[in-house]
Amino acid sequence: MVCLGSIPASAQEPVPTTTQLQSSLNPASDGDAVDFTAMVDAGGVAVSGGSVYFYDGNQLLGNAPLIVGSATFPAGALPVGVHFIQAVFPGDTTHSGSSSEFLAQLVNPIGATGSNIAIDNIAINPMMPNQPSDTIHMLQTVTFTATVTSGSPDFTGSVIFIDNSLPMGNPVALPGTGSAQQAMLNTPNLLIGQHNIAAVYTGDANFAASVSPDVSVLRTPRPR
């Protein structure tokens, strides 16, 4: 009988990792320095070595060394607005790569008036009898409505809908009049599975940005 011995380390499957991301200050004000910290682990064990790369959308901000499962990047003062930040660990010889969910980092003008946003309506079309309002079947479309409110009227800006931390399409412009304004997004193509939907108000020169709580919906393979 031939003894194969142990498998060389180079031939072993890389160990899966997970990456999480935190901000030192969110929301921040114009001029505030912000640090982003990524935590990388492999089955609960901190990963060391290599670097983590930090992105603002598709733009690389920079990288930081990964030391005992943590990498902190000093991003400094970001421009006013909403920034979708992601941390990416590319992996190494023994660990697979992983990416964090996007983090919506808000940077508001100094002295900006506060705002609130909530997804307050989910409309499914066509709706079936006795169908749960948070369950969407195949061949059905869904429209999410977000309402932005503020103590002062006539704010401007846009709403970005996000699905499991990923932006859904282009920003939806608000009407620009009134102290309660709505933005709607219609989508027929949610993938099968659970979706955590949120809405982000981008703010403007006088009003602060804000993020809604998540609403959870399920897309099923069942035909309507």
How would you describe what is shown here?
With 224 residues, this protein is mainly beta. The chain has two domains: 15-108, Immunoglobulins (Immunoglobulin-like, Sandwich), CATH 2.60.40; 116-223, Immunoglobulin-like (Sandwich), CATH 2.60.40. It is built from no helices and 20 strands. It has strands at 18-23, 28-29, 33-42, 45-46, 51-56, 59-65, 70-77, 81-89, 98-99, 103-108, 116-125, 135-138, 141-149, 158-163, 166-167, 172-173, 180-187, 193-201, 210-211, 215-223. The N and C termini lie far apart (60 Å).
Query: What would the CATH topology of the largest domain be?
Result: Immunoglobulin-like
Q: Shape from CA axes?
A: flat
What value does the average pLDDT take? 92
Number of helices: 0
Q: What is the helix/strand order?
A: EEEEEEEEEEEEEEEEEEEE
What does the radius of gyration come to? 21 Å
Tell me about the largest β-sheet: 7 strands, mixed
CATH architecture of the largest domain: Sandwich
**Which percent band covers the strand fraction?**
over 45%
Number of domains: 2
Describe this structure in a few short sentences.
By secondary structure, the chain is mainly β. The chain is built from no helices and 20 strands.
